[in-house]
Specification:
Mean pLDDT: 91
Largest sheet: 5 strands, antiparallel
Strand order of the largest sheet: 4-5-10-6-7
Strand content: 15-25%
Order of helices and strands: EEEEEHHHHHEEHEEEHEEEEHHE
Low-confidence stretches: 275-285
Number of helices: 9
Structural class: alpha+beta
Distance between the termini: 35 Å
Length: about 280
């Protein structure tokens, strides 16, 4: 779509050139930005000209630039110990996008749109990623991706702030992950996307529900939960998304089914069926 209200396009080469004015919007791949009318948009600031490295590895941390395209992330060669890495391709395919979109759409852009079906949000929330946010005063702040998206197209982000990157601890990448997805049609938008992460050493179990909820629902258990504990945690959540891609009741039902399937996988890999007694569950959203 032509953005007829745009009057300026800036291509910064340094952070000092990045300052956003009222009406400006950061531009990554632009796959969503150019897909529909953008009321009030008068200027674009192209983040890709800043030259951020797509992926960087430092001791203990994998950093993914906000401008890294989905295609580039898929081409990263993981360490043999990164047993969580298959989740990258699974979440990328959940977008049901063509290779052309993969080569333009950015990881940061998918998160920044704040759509319930943002599969990169699901990926990063499951991997406990932290978003590095550049602030207007030249500083930065760090926000867990699970806390960054606070609602439909709503982020914990000021208009003059920019997502710089996402930091993932390599220790998390050695976890085992699980994935479930459903839509109302074979090529439709995700109605429910449920992912999980667990370790066989500590038996920690993390469940993430997206697409079915306006914002990521993250449930943390110190060990693989029993079926009753998992049911209780899911029943406590009342905010299920409602749009043409699925009703709240349907989304709750399929998410609950998927959650139990992933719980069963984790219990099997941990060599336990998972008890039904009390557990110290932490529910985030």
């Amino acid at each position: 779509m032509d953005l007829v209200s745009v009057r300026t396009v800036r291509t910064p080469s340094h952070r000092d050139d990045l300052a956003l004015s009222p009406g400006d919007r950061p531009l990554g791949g632009g796959t969503w930005l150019f897909s529909e009318e953008q009321p009030g948009l008068t200027g674009l600031v192209d983040l890709t000209t800043l030259g951020w490295p797509d992926v960087e590895r430092t001791p203990g941390t994998l950093t993914i630039a906000a401008t890294c395209t989905i295609a580039t992330l898929l081409r990263v060669q993981p360490d043999p110990s990164w047993t969580a890495w298959p989740l990258v391709a699974q979440c990328a395919n959940a977008l049901l996008a063509s290779f052309k979109v993969w080569n333009a759409a950015t990881v940061g852009g998918n998160v920044a749109v704040g759509l319930p079906a943002g599969a990169m949000t699901a990926l990063l929330a499951t991997l406990d990623a932290t978003a590095v946010v550049w602030t207007a005063d030249g500083g930065e702040r760090r926000v867990p991706v699970a806390d960054l998206v606070v609602g439909v197209r709503t982020l914990d982000l000021r208009p003059d702030e920019v997502i710089r990157s996402f930091a993932v601890r390599e220790a998390v990448l050695t976890s085992t992950t699980g994935f479930r997805r459903v839509s109302l049609s074979p090529h439709g938008r995700s109605g429910a996307l449920v992912t999980a992460r667990w370790t066989t050493t500590t038996s920690e179990f993390v469940l993430v529900v997206t697409a079915a909820t306006p914002r990521p629902l993250v449930l943390r258990f110190p060990t693989v939960p029993g079926t009753a504990d998992l049911d209780d945690a899911l029943r406590a959540h009342r905010d299920w998304y409602d749009d043409p891609h699925g009703s709240p009741a349907w989304r709750r039902a399929v998410s609950t089914r998927f959650a139990h399937e992933l719980r069963d996988e984790a219990a099997a890999s941990a060599g336990t069926t998972g008890g039904s007694g009390p557990s110290d569950t932490t529910a985030v959203r």
